[in-house]
Structures are given as C-alpha cells and as structure tokens.
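Good morning,

Attaching, inline, the backbone tokens for the sequence recovery test we're adding to the shared suite. The designed sequence is right after.
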C-alpha cells in the first residue's frame, strides 16, 4: 500500500493586512476536509497557518498530482476566498491567480508539496511552512540536513546514509531542472543553490535506493502573474529517521537565523525566525519572515491519531531551544531595517523586476541623459 502526503497552501485573504489567517477561513477549511474524510477521499487532515497562508495537510491513497485532491484544495480555497471577500479581509483571493481549474492546482497560484511513500516500520514526517519568503529559503536547511556531515551526524555515523543523497534543483528562471548527487557533487550543488533567488531544491532522494526524503513547493507567484502579487511562502515535507536524518538533525539548521528573500512587499532580505504555531503571525515590517514546523507519524495511510481519532501533531518550534535564533532574527532585523531601502537590505535590481521599480524607471525615462 502506498500513502501520499499532500500539503497545499494559499493566501486567500487575511486579517489586519498580511498578518494572519482569520478564524472563519479555518472553519471553512476544516469543514471541507472533514467532509472529504467522511466521503473517503482523504484519510486524515490537519489545517494550520503560516502567517497569512492557509495550509491544508492531507494524507490519502490517491497518489501525487491527483485531480480529486487538487480539486478539493482548489474549491476549499475558493470558498475561503469568497468568505474573505464578504468580510473585506485583506488580499482576498490573493494567490488564486487562474480561474479555470483543469485537474492540477500546480501553476494556478497555490503552493504544493506532495510525497507518495511506501510506509516504513515507522515514518516520522516534518512539514515546514513559511511566510514572507520564497521557495529558495529551503535551500540552506535542506543542504545542511542532507549533505553536511557537520550538521547531520548520521552522514558519518549511520552506514545506511554513506551512499549520500540526490538533490533535484529547479532553475526557476529558465524553467529547467538538474539532479546532483552528494557528496560527489557538493561543490556544484552549493554553486547553484547558493543563488537562492533563482535555484530551489525541489526534491531529495536517498542515493542508494532512491527513497523519497524531501519535497518542496517551488511556485514563483511573480513568474505566473508577471508582476508582484504577494510572496510564494513555500512549504516542504521531510521524512526522518532510520537511515535518514533524525528529526533533530532536520531541525538543528534552525538553531541560528539565516537570511531569506521576500520580506515587506516581497522586496527585501529578512532574517528567518523559527516560531511556534501560536506565533505564526507577521508584524514588524510585515515579518520577520517566519517558519513553522509540524511533526507527525504516518500510520496505515493516516496521521497517527489519539483515542478520540484526533491526529497527533507536534508543534516542533514551540521550544525554548529556538529562542537564540528568534533573538538573532530580531537583532538582524534591526540591522537591516536601519538601512531602509539601501542594498543589501533591499533585494537586487533583478529581483525587483516584478515590483514597482520598472514603473519608476518608466516615469524617469525621458529625463535620463547620456553620461
Ligand atoms: P497596498 O498597496 O494595497 O497597500 O499593498 C501593499 C502590500 O501589502 C504589498 O503586498
Ligand atoms: P504575503 O505574500 O504573505 O501576502 O505578503 C505580501 C507582502 O507584500 C507583505 O509585505
Ligand atoms: Mg497576504
Ligand atoms: Mg503570506
């Protein structure tokens, strides 16, 4: 039996600017998914938020890119967007960029990460979801987790990881992809994914048996819309333990903050702050960019549940161990914000292509003189 884990997310409107998903939208999502569970379409679900992004985590047996699962997510987002419009919430329907649904939600605005797995004896899963950033923000932690022996002790200690891991890297500019194998191609991998605004790690497999280990959403909203429409706010699924990095090795890259693209108006670098679900709401300069992590066990096609059939989901960044990263993030936020609109606080000119910068240049066009 194969089990599929799907996380599909969208910003369909939020309360008080780009701060947080409003309660009525959660209720719509829970009702819809509960109904789908009763109908037998999905086996388990968990609804949560990353700031203003509504996150639908679904476990089922329909495989990846299944049109019924994608339709369920699309219709849920549409209904939630209607509610957001009624309530005049901010950015209602923001990420629903296309109208005609034709079986696959990919390329329509919402972010998708899906992994079909053959269940192992025990399968711990970590889901990451971020707000105010873009797909490339997973490059650094996924590299540390699956390729850096100074991060992941298992790469040195567990013989079943000695064959290394394969990374699929997406070139979002040219819309092409390449698979690189670590440790042999570590330098080439860093060469590409160090450019996190262009290249994103989209999948990771264990090299010796092609076991799926990680998948990320790689939607670039601005490339779909051709203009700035909000940030990608990506999600990732990572599988842990027993011949794969331990949950703790997947979380330890977040011991310190690091810089990601996408803060305020999608136009600034910001320090990533790992937060609990209760702190998953952006404030300062619409940030700082935040990441939540939820963990669960897969059990016979479902999320392992308690005696009242409630999925058991752990809020992994709800831990004082991440206080240092949070404090660093606030300090770095102070340094960057003191710089205002001066690089490197603001993104490079190329990354500003989809903001209002082209309009400023257009306005000044006739006044430029040869120098
Ligand atoms: P407004 O121009 O509606 O204020 O939007 C700015 C913004 O929040 C960009 O996402
Ligand atoms: P979101 O992509 O989270 O809606 O943020 C948009 C923005 O511009 C915030 O400043
Ligand atoms: Mg928003
Ligand atoms: Mg968002």
């Amino acid at each position: 039996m194969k089990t599929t884990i799907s996380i599909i997310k969208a910003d369909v409107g939020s309360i008080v600017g780009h701060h947080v998903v409003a309660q009525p939208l959660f209720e719509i999502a829970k009702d819809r998914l509960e109904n789908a569970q009763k109908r037998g379409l999905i086996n388990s679900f968990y609804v949560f938020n990353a700031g203003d992004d509504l996150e639908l985590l679904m476990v089922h047996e329909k495989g990846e890119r299944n049109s019924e699962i994608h339709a369920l997510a699309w219709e849920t987002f549409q209904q939630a967007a209607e509610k957001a419009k009624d309530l005049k919430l901010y950015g209602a329907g923001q990420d629903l960029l296309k109208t005609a649904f034709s079986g696959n939600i990919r390329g329509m605005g919402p972010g998708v990460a899906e992994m079909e797995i053959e269940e192992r004896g025990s399968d711990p899963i970590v889901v990451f979801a971020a707000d105010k950033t873009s797909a490339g923000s997973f490059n650094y932690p996924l590299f540390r987790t699956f390729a850096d022996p100074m991060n992941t002790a298992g790469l040195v200690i567990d013989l079943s990881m000695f064959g290394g891991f394969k990374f699929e890297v997406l070139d979002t500019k040219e819309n092409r992809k390449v698979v690189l194998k670590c440790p042999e191609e570590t330098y080439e991998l860093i060469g590409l994914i160090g450019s996190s605004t262009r290249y994103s790690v989209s999948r990771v497999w264990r090299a010796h048996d092609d076991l799926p280990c990680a998948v990320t959403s790689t939607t670039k909203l601005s490339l779909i819309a051709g203009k700035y429409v909000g940030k990608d706010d990506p999600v990732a699924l990572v599988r842990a333990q027993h011949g794969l990095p331990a949950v703790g090795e997947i979380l330890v890259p977040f011991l310190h903050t690091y810089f990601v693209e996408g803060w305020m108006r999608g136009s600034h670098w910001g320090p990533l702050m790992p937060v609990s679900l209760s702190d998953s709401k952006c404030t300062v300069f619409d940030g700082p960019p935040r990441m939540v992590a939820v963990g669960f066990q897969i059990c016979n096609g479902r999320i392992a549940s308690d005696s009242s059939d409630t999925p058991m989901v752990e809020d992994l960044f709800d831990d004082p161990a991440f206080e240092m990263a949070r404090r660093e993030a606030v300090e770095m936020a102070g340094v960057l914000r003191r710089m205002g609109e001066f690089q490197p606080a603001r993104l490079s000119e190329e990354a500003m292509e989809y903001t209002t910068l082209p309009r400023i240049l257009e306005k000044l066009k006739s006044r430029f003189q040869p120098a």
